[in-house]
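Example 362.
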Amino acid sequence: QFAQKDGFRFFMEKEIYEQSNVVSDCMLGRIQDEEILFDEIDSSIIEGINEIKICACGTSYHAGLTASYLFERLAKVRCNVVIASEFRYKEPLLTKDTLFIVISQSGETADTLEALKMAKNAGLKTLVVCNVDNSSMTRLADHTILTRAGIEKGVASTKAFSTQTVVLWMLSLYFAKQNDKISKETLQKEIHALREVPKSLIVSDKMHEKTKRLSKRYLHGHGFFFIGRDVFFPLALEGALKLKEISYLHAEGYPAGEMKHGPIALADPELFTIALMPENLLYDKIKSNVEELSARDSTICTISPLEFELSDDFIKTQKTDHYMLEFFEMLVVLQLLSMEISVRLGNDVDMPRNLAKSVTVE
Ligand code: G6P
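Predicted structure in complex with 6-O-phosphono-alpha-D-glucopyranose:
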């Protein structure tokens, strides 16, 4: 209740700008020269574990999906992700060789909390990645890792997501090291990239102006497809969710390679494709997916460090040597774009209709 907007128009805007700093706080003391440390957990947490199951809702679910790629790629541990409201009633098979991770900004979301209770009752080891200390979930879980994002007021979550993703990336490296699944060189490379994340999250005036200017072209049409591959698929889901939440425009996040199995039928100039085209991950694959959409006349906005001749609009991101740095910069672009579209449509950015910051009913 004491939070101030500090000269920003909206809490969401302030929180987008805060990301660089809060992510530094989130990493503080957790990255030592060549190692990841979490004082709040110990190495026994991963002993005897053959699988990680992640459960969450909303934006936190998107952080979980992103993490599932990192846990498998870096820590070589099987990982699956379930939406909490689905998990509760699907009669899930739970075995004790599974580490159960819940992700929640508030620590109070009813479905996630109930999923956590189910896992505890089944005798699983549990861990919560949470932004609120002493919340229902941190009290219940065996282990807690706090995201240190500070109070988040905007209903559309921003800094909670970036800090969750950083924590989960660090955790995948922590597990990788504990289980001896990562080479020294790869670990060094990953840690080097992690240290650069705060820089990737800095909002430049130029970028903000660009999204402001572009937003006026994306107020109508019959829908948006945000597309990406690998971790850029959950990022696409998150971009689409942000837009839906505050602009009330119809948007879907889709795995780029899946467009040909149905959604491409919708393509025409009134269909807006927002394509996430990182240089460091599957660039040629996504490029051919975007070419297919372009050939069907979809209006295309690409976000990439590389110019792409078929784009109607192009948002240029910085060149880096790690796809996760591209991920965080693109995250900021998507947040800004949805906010500026919402502003132009005259909506209340911080208090979108029908939504609540924390959903404590089923
Ligand atoms: C609500 C909020 C979302 C949030 C979701 C999960 O729907 O509007 O922004 O992602 O709940 O919340 P949690 O606190 O569990 O992360």
